[in-house]
Amino acid sequence: MSDKPEASDVQKRPPNNNILFAVIILIVVACAAAFVLLTPSDEQETRTEVEPAVKEQPMMELKPENDPVVDAPSVMPEKPAELEVPAQSPSEPEPEVEPLPTLNESDAVVVAKMDEYLSDSVMSLMVTDDVIRRGVVFVDNLAKGKVAKKHTPVVQPEEKFSVNEGDILTINPNSYERYTPYVKIFTSMSAAQAVRMYEEYKPLINNAYSEIGYGDDEFNQTLTDAIDLLLDTPEPEGDLPLLRDSVTYQYAFSEWEQLPAAQKQLLRMGPENMKKVKAALRNIKAQLENN
After folding, report:
1. 186-192 long-range CB contacts below 8 Å, 24 or more apart?
2. How far apart are the first and last CA of the chain?
3. How far is the C-alpha of 192 from the C-alpha of 210, rounded, in Å?
4. Whole-model pTM?
5. Which residues pair with 169 in a beta bridge?
6. Where are the strands (E) in 108-237, listed by range?
7. pLDDT, tens digit, for every residue of 247-273?
8. Distances, alpha carbon 116 to alpha carbons 33, 40, 98, 111, 156, in Å
9. Nearest to 181 by CA among 258, 276, 245
10. In contact, 217 and 206? CB cutoff 8 Å
């Protein structure tokens, strides 16, 4: 663990506890992009209706001229009405989709759209510069079990990390509440909508991924790896004892302390928050696999 005791002056700065929030940012970015990219199809299917043909009347048989009963008038068969097909109206052209901005110019568009779409409380949690690059670098590190503190995509919780003092040090449950706003944002999104919008904004995400030395269109696997790593985070039964190490805290049991940094920070969200986040991640992963 890397949280610091309250007694230390260093603790005046809240610890960096943004784990999977890069995933949240990518989804939020995609939501904003939907205003630019998604153009719903309002055209209804046009059906051509054909009038039924008039039923042809049977031709009456004419009597020979020497027939004594030859009064019956000659009846010519009715000419069937011609089939009339309504002229099809020319199909309306599909609305043009506004092109994506360049990666360097994407912040202005993304932030403006997010500000229109998201609440002030959500916007206050986000770092609004270099949004796409920041999220991509963070997820890339996350997939490796690391936490890229310089590329944190959301602001840190204002509340400080705290512990329960006693014979055994444990995390104060109140510390878990710091993450509730983030979890609510994440778990309130539809996985199908989030992934669909992520796909729409994917070109710029791939551009950012290429900038850090990877090939085009490889970010999907990295995102999946990051999700898998978080899903593999063990879920403790009960409180985990801590050890005070100078100005930081560590897990007392080596099997927990040796976990990747990303998983250890996910543990700090608390058991209930972790379950909600994992459920949302499973839905997103399933949706990605179906695309």
Report:
1. 186/20, 186/23, 186/24, 186/27, 186/276, 186/277, 186/280, 187/276, 187/277, 187/279, 187/280, 189/27, 189/31, 189/280, 191/280, 191/283, 191/284, 191/286, 191/287, 192/287
2. 37
3. 26
4. 0.69
5. 242
6. 163-164, 170-171
7. 788 999 999 999 999 999 899 999 999
8. 11, 19, 17, 9, 23
9. 276
10. yes
